[in-house]
Amino acid sequence: MITTYGFSIATPNKELRQATIDAVFRWLDDVHPHEKRTNTTPVNIRYSANDPIFRVDVLEQDPRQAAARGTTATLIVSKNELYFDLRRTLRPTKAALLPRRTIDRPELRLTQLVIEIVELFKTRDAGQIVGPKITIANDQVTGQSLAAFAEAPGRRLPIVIETIVGKPRAITNSTTAMQLAGIAHLAHIASHTAEEAFNNLHGARIISSSWITIVWPRGAEIENYHQQDDDELIKQLIAASIGSLATLVLAPPKKRSLDPAQKPVSTQQTATTQGSPTIEFDELRKINRELLEENAGLLENATLTDMLSAQKTEERDRAYDQLATFLLMDEDKSYLDKIADAVAYAQKNLANLVFHDRAIESANNSHLMNGRRVYSNLVELNNLAARLQRGDFAPNVFNIYCNQQLSNFAASISDEAENRYAQDYAIEWKGVNVLAKPHIRCGDARIHFYHDTSTNEIVIAHIGRHLRDKSTN
Predict the structure, then answer these.
(1) Which pTM value belongs to this model?
(2) What is the pLDDT of residues 291-305, one digit of tens each?
(3) Which of 55, 425, 433, 437 matches a 20 to 30 Å C-alpha distance to 472?
(4) Does the domain at residues 123-248 carry the CATH identifier 3.40.720.10?
């Protein structure tokens, strides 16, 4: 398991516990509403009014590789503070050597949750509120104030400083500030006066329009970045945030008796070691650590096992339904004979395909009578679409798998068909006109579909007679 994003924040105001929990539940309902949750997207919630620990763990299949992406939000009420921890992890689901993606910039839905928590906690860092906003220094006073903040010994978070004077556009912006919420402060130097005041107070020229400066806390060495975008900068700061995350102890250790062969500590020995950790305490602490590590590994394996079992169950149920349909075809020779009947049945049973209105219309207008063959090909395409959405293979090799599994499959259409008869193959999909080039030949019938690579949806665009192409008179 690899942690690819991490953020934590604390506040002494423990009254904010319920408001924080409500924010996490709103995020969960927005990202994974109850009606759309499946067995392949496990959601585990630990929540009780008397439990000092609140936790939500969501596991999603990563379509880009054979791995699952976990998002875990944890809220702990301790003696002195309310502690919130958010982590994004990558968990392999197959025995395969995969590229190590160490850092994930948070997407908008996760950033919005972080911003809501940060603004709710109103935590101060060396006197300054932690937030997703950019501090602007445009005169001598604000330049000196920023330099003083950079030198503050109690500061916990790094400061990203960019001089924007004379630049056509800033490299860091409001999106940068939002993605670094709770991880770093972001400041812009908007005048030469402010830049000079900052450097003079600091005693050296550490900021300039030629680079972006990170002033780390606690006297760590200052870093300069000369890139033309903020990508490397953000990854470095997220990596630092991940490295600073605390080890969460969420469950009390199980009781385990000591080895009977272990000799008891004598009263004299106890007296001589009073005021320092005893041998017995060290042994218990070691056992506790081992149990926690073992528990974390078992929980991770159990979650992944549940996820994979759910996938296998869905595949088995789908195979049973398909077998029943094909048996009915043999018993009743007229069953699903018409293409229109086959498409109507496919709409109800093939959940991994999206049937466009034009596909329904073309099927209804067709009088072809090889519906069972059309349905059989749609079943195979549906199975491939399920594997695609589950992440069993990359989107760019989908056509290769289609070519292996589907007889009479063609990945595209001829140049003449595309240039002269593009309107025959075009559908409106999410406000954009796209061409349904991949197709399956089913005797006189054709199944044309479109692969939306951004969402991995397979959209059936046409089911009916051969569309016009180079062979058309």
Answers:
(1) 0.56
(2) 666 666 665 556 556
(3) 433
(4) no
